[in-house]
Design goal:
single chain; 218 residues; 8 helices; 7 strands; 42% helix; 22% strand
Length: 218
């Protein structure tokens, strides 16, 4: 597989990022991801969220009071939104501006890395996985959660209907899934081939109706 691809989405800056921040809050989903971290990372762990967007998941992790949380996003607008959101939530976590394929972070820094709903948009997916390996401590875990390209339209529509959006945002979200997000997404086999080009030797892929959890261990 090619190690690079063109970005086919909309740049998450300015008004687009602000619109996304208003529609992307899914508390039940974030609680599930927090549970995934809690099941794997002991208290005191350093946790990195790659491409956290508005920072909702990082805020939920920081509320646990037992992790040192860092967020890294390429969008300057999201960095600003996240810093506002964490201040309003009364929690603190480090938030950095940077590219997932060239992280401004030291080697072997984090015990757990999580990336949700963003990996399909990375233009250098192999380098992004390699960077996750680099900044992960020995014995650490990476969890990438994302859409499957072979997810059915019925399953996608059902998920969007359950997001609690108004009619306009529901239409826009369905449009984004059908015309952009599904096209950017990977199949299970493609993810396996990307991972095989990095130093990660321990991996597990768990599928659900529309997506997959990619577990990588160093």
């Amino acid at each position: 597989m090619s190690t690079t691809k063109a970005y086919k989405g909309i740049a998450m800056e300015g008004l687009i990022a602000k619109w996304y921040a208003k529609t992307a809050r899914r508390d039940e989903e974030f609680k599930m991801y927090v549970s995934r971290v809690n099941e794997t990372a002991p208290a005191g762990s350093r946790v990195l969220e790659v491409a956290p967007g508005p920072g909702y998941l990082s805020i939920e992790l920081a509320k646990q009071g037992k992790y040192q949380v860092t967020g890294l996003d390429i969008s300057k607008t999201f960095v600003e939104i996240s810093r506002t959101n964490d201040a309003q939530a009364g929690v603190q976590f480090a938030f950095r501006h940077g590219n997932a394929s060239d992280m401004p972070l030291a080697d072997a820094t984090f015990d757990f890395i999580i990336c949700t709903a963003a990996f399909k948009n990375f233009t250098q997916p192999v380098r992004a996985i390699a960077e996750m390996y680099r900044v992960l401590k020995p014995g650490g875990t990476t969890l990438i959660v994302d859409l499957r390209r072979d997810a059915s339209r019925m399953a996608i529509d059902e998920m969007v209907d359950n997001m609690g959006l108004n009619r306009v945002n529901r239409f826009l979200t369905r449009w984004a899934f059908r015309l952009m997000l599904l096209k950017n997404a990977y199949t299970r086999a493609e993810i396996g081939r990307l991972v095989s080009q990095t130093k990660f030797e321990k991996s597990e892929i768990r599928e659900d109706a529309i997506g997959m959890e990619i577990w990588l261990r160093k």
